[in-house]
Automatic annotation (TrEMBL), chains A, B, C, D:
<keyword id="KW-0378">Hydrolase</keyword>
<dbReference type="Pfam" id="PF00857">
    <property type="entry name" value="Isochorismatase"/>
</dbReference>
<feature type="domain" description="Isochorismatase-like">
    <location>
        <begin position="11"/>
        <end position="195"/>
    </location>
</feature>
<protein>
    <submittedName>
        <fullName>Cysteine hydrolase family protein</fullName>
    </submittedName>
</protein>
<dbReference type="InterPro" id="IPR000868">
    <property type="entry name" value="Isochorismatase-like_dom"/>
</dbReference>
<dbReference type="GO" id="GO:0016787">
    <property type="term" value="F:hydrolase activity"/>
</dbReference>
<dbReference type="InterPro" id="IPR050272">
    <property type="entry name" value="Isochorismatase-like_hydrls"/>
</dbReference>
<dbReference type="InterPro" id="IPR036380">
    <property type="entry name" value="Isochorismatase-like_sf"/>
</dbReference>
């Protein structure tokens, strides 16, 4: 699957979870994804895409996970084991350094910060779909973390909702090579419209 | 339509927009609804329902409208005229007194504060539906403001989503008697399961 | 509120419930709306809009209510009183004349027939939103029946979802003048972008 | 993750796509999943679960994919490559044997047949969520096909919507062992509440 034309006024970059806990040395989840992240050159690729996207006039949507707060999930009947684990670790805790934006990826003027999501999909229980419509978006490029959870789930929802979905296989990471392969070789082709490398995407965005 | 049994562990009170701008002397929207509010005894009725609901062990969900912030709607392609008017008035502005909870209705421990909605429905673009499921809720009692906008629209969405919906015709207000009549006599019966007075509701909630 | 430009490739006509039971002499619901329908010239206006829309190259989406079938709602815990009444009357019964399209408004090649809705909103529990996205639609013109139930509720959902919404006040009907006034004078202006007459709409669609 | 108590009046079996094209010798997709299906004992396991579920008084929801019809997707702007491939193959074609229910799994009286879905999630663009609410369902057991597409995507949506999700790793199949592993070892644990074998599930359902 190759990328084709990305009309800037109809395309959005969805940058999922650019938190220190995910992307910075010392972050709570960084150790879990560091191996894959360094192997694919994650940070440099994220920087390259954000620069290319801004140069092309494509709008950036920040799609953040819930920042943990005291009391979270306590009265919930059916939080998932995975959610309970993240709550125990106080991942992305509100007011903590880990819950702040990685300094290279903090929102700039004109970026849209979507409501925080509780699970894996940036669309579920948030205003992402309506905000995309209000900005006339038909295509989404989904980058950030983690390849087989939030990126895949946000991509699956986007596809079901009628958006064109591009995954970038070296602008995300996961806990293992196998999880990366599950995201991009096994599952991605069943719902995405394009699965590309950062280099391919940057080239497509720079095309006249 | 009469209320019947409200099992506490399956019922939620949805209190929409308990802001000073709506409910307090000096609030930006108060002058527009004051006539009807005083006529139905709105503040006393809201206090009576909240007290009865808490006594019955029914959980309170606060369902707040977007607190205006600088930049809101500026890049939107299709904000409604009504939304643009509210943005110009900076209704419920973040950090302002008008955007604070009315002191009698601020959330208490155990209450759930839902994500802010951009339009009229407390369900649209928020986590209300998922949070109701996580608390095993099958019935919603919808009170607050305004009868023919946020209350009606939240009730309509609830009904479409499969919840049992109770409207309380003197625990809300609107700009005119005619708008109240539209909400409770003309439209309410087409989607709600019960339309009651505060007195009828309090009696039903106090039944053994 | 006046209509402005309707780009054909971004606009859809949502024609709600063009069934014989609603629109034809002998239909089950026709007697309830006949007074208003004849007063506003409903049938002629619907014909004029459909013709103008097709001439302009705007796509028609048929948005149908559930055709009643034996067993409907029987196991539901929380059908609304209004739904139960319609089920008892077997409105739009599958296989019956009343559940067939009015002959002037049957789908033509290229029209999209959306999934049937159970309540009042053509968006709730159907594929309408995804189908609009798949056809690049940003604006919806909502006509058909009934002004203060399915038309209003479909319009409210469209607005919350981020679409531009046009109501046509003489291309719908209701049980009373008061219900028409509730739909177009009291509630419509709080969520719609344009509320027009058939004549105004046809003129706007014919503009170069 | 182990199953615990499944209260019959709060639990649903979601049986996804019990079509001949998937489950019968001669079906269009059967050759693609046959290897895994025979290895896990798919057909026998599906029969055992359906029998145990019915014996326990748990309601069956049939969650069917769109039966292909002429014209499908032709006017869509952004069908996925995967959807286009299925349309070219006319999978589950309406009126064909392949689009009929496998004879062992046809709906029985009291079963609920949900609206057909266009993509992978049984919730997207259908009435599944509302129908589950109308039947007071809090837990879903998701079986059928394919493990890493419709089953996973329906499970992910269910989890985001607030349901308790059980996957059954030998009551589904996929094109490869690797895809099964992606579904149950890599992705499932990030959103599901229980991942069990047929034997474990049947035992749990038979417990007093």
């Amino acid at each position: 699957m190759t990328p084709d034309h990305y009309a800037p006024e109809r395309t959005a970059l969805l940058f999922v979870d650019p938190y220190n806990d995910f992307l910075s040395e010392g972050g709570k989840v960084w150790p879990r994804i560091r191996g894959v992240a360094e192997q694919v050159g994650l940070l440099d690729n994220l920087r390259a895409i954000v620069a290319a996207v801004r140069a092309a006039g494509i709008r950036v949507f920040i799609v953040p996970h819930r920042r943990w707060e005291p009391g979270d999930l306590e009265s919930w009947q059916r939080a998932t084991p995975y959610q309970r684990m993240a709550a125990r670790a106080q991942t992305f805790a509100k007011g903590s350094w880990g819950g702040e934006w990685h300094p290279d990826f903090a929102p700039k003027t004109g970026d849209i910060v979507v409501k925080e999501h509780w699970g894996s999909s940036g669309f579920a229980n948030t205003d992402l779909d309506a905000l995309l419509k209000q900005h006339d978006i038909a295509r989404v490029i989904v980058i950030g973390l983690i390849a087989n959870t939030c990126i895949e789930c946000t991509g699956r929802f986007a596809s079901e909702l009628g958006y064109h979905v591009t995954l970038v296989k070296d602008a995300t990471a996961a806990a293992s090579d196998e999880a990366m392969r599950a995201a991009h070789e096994i599952n991605g082709p069943t719902f995405a419209h394009a699965i590309v490398t950062t280099q391919e995407l940057v080239t497509a965005l720079s095309a006249p």
